[in-house]
TrEMBL record:
Superkingdom of the organism of origin: Bacteria
Biased composition (Basic and acidic residues): 7-21
UniProt-recorded name of the protein: Deoxyribose-phosphate aldolase
Residue span of region Disordered: 1-21
Pfam families the record matches: DUF6503
Amino acid sequence: MSCSSPQKEDKQTPPKSEAQDIVDKSISHHGMEQLDHAEFSLTFRDMSYTYSLQNGLYKYTRTQTDSIDQEVYDVLTNEGLTRYINGDSVELEEEKRAAYSRSVNSVIYFFRLPFGLNDEAVIKEYQGTTSIKGKDYHEIRVTFKQSGGGEDFDDVFLYWFDTEDYSMDYLAYLYHTDGGGMRFREAINPRRVNDVLIQDYINFKPEDESMDINNISELYENGELEELSRIINEGVAISIK
C-alpha cells in the first residue's frame, strides 16, 4: 500500500491520456516492459538479426550471405551503420548507408511492437473503437515529432488493440521512403518466448495506395486487400537483463 497522499500524486503526475493507457496495457500484455534492458536474436528471410539495448545505447546487427558467398555483417548503433564484408569494414555511399539502416531498423522495430510506441518522438491519438472480424478494438493513430522521429517522421501508423486483453492484433502504416505506399498487417502465430509475446504477420496492401488510411480496416473486412507477403520470425531467443 502506498503511503503517498492521493492529492499530492494528482498534482505531481498528470493523468494518462486514453491512448497512453491503452499502449501501456498492451506493452504489459505482451510482456515487453523490460525490453529496454534486453537482448534477442531471430532469423528473418534467411538473415540473422540481433538486438541489444542497455541504458539507451542500442546495437542491432544483421548477418547474411550475398550472391557470391561473402558474409555481409551490418551493425547499427546510436552512432550509425557500419558494414563489414568477410570481416573487413567497407566504405558506403550515404544513400546506401541510409537504405541499409532503414532495412535493419525496420525488422527490429516491427518485431518489438508495441514496445516502440512509448519512444519519445511518438505522438499517440485515440480514435475510438472499431470492430474487426466481430471483435472490438481500440484504434490509435501514431505520428512522430520531427525532432527525434528519424527521416521517416512523416509516416502515419494505425494500431488496433483488443478491448479485452489489449493484444495488438492489427496495424497499418503509410510511408514515404522508397517510393512510398500503404500496408496493413494481421498478426498471426502468437507465442511466448521467455514470457514475451511475439507474433508473425500477413502483409497486405490496398489497390489504391493513395487512399485515406483511416478506411483501410474496412477494405480488410471486405476482403479487398491484396496479400503481399508473410512476415515470419524464426529461431527467436530473448534474454532480459
